[in-house]
Design goal:
141 residues; alpha/beta; Nucleotidyltransferase, domain 5; 3 helices
Length: 141
């Protein structure tokens, strides 16, 4: 008499190493095809200037205050919304009294002039000596 020995079937297994390989390839593809260009959060129509020029690459980048056409303020590269009082606190914490601290105002050409003057007053009150404005060349779009 011959007995048939039943072998137990192994349960299906997920091969984790293969999944990790596929995920690594997907991450590499994503990193290679993605562009890491920082763009400002606001679309501003800058006023024209015949004396507009680009700053040097080795100069310390300015702290930028954005003012849109409705008069709302945004601060820094992240374009965080701020009020005039909060702007004063932020500038005070950023300005360590160094002479090379630069504040730049990037205002829409239709921005209320009173808001621009308020920002300049705050800078003057805090002793910031270098305040500039972003403009575009007359031929630039």
């Amino acid at each position: 008499m011959q007995f048939h020995v039943r072998t137990r079937r192994q349960p299906p297994a997920v091969i984790v190493v293969a999944l990790i390989d596929v995920l690594v390839v997907l991450v590499i593809f994503l990193v290679v095809t993605t562009t890491f260009k920082q763009q400002p959060a606001l679309r501003l129509a800058l006023p024209d200037s015949t004396q507009a020029k680009r700053e040097g690459a080795n100069a310390r980048p300015p702290l930028v205050v954005y003012i849109d056409d409705k008069g709302s303020l945004r601060l820094g590269s992240a374009a965080r919304p701020v009020t005039t009082e909060r702007l004063k606190e932020e500038l005070q914490s950023q300005n360590t009294g160094s002479t090379n601290f630069v504040l730049a105002i990037s205002a829409d050409k239709n921005a209320p002039f009173g808001v621009i003057v308020k920002v300049m007053d705050v800078a003057k009150e805090l002793g910031i000596k270098s305040v500039s404005a972003f403009t575009k060349s007359a031929g630039e779009k």
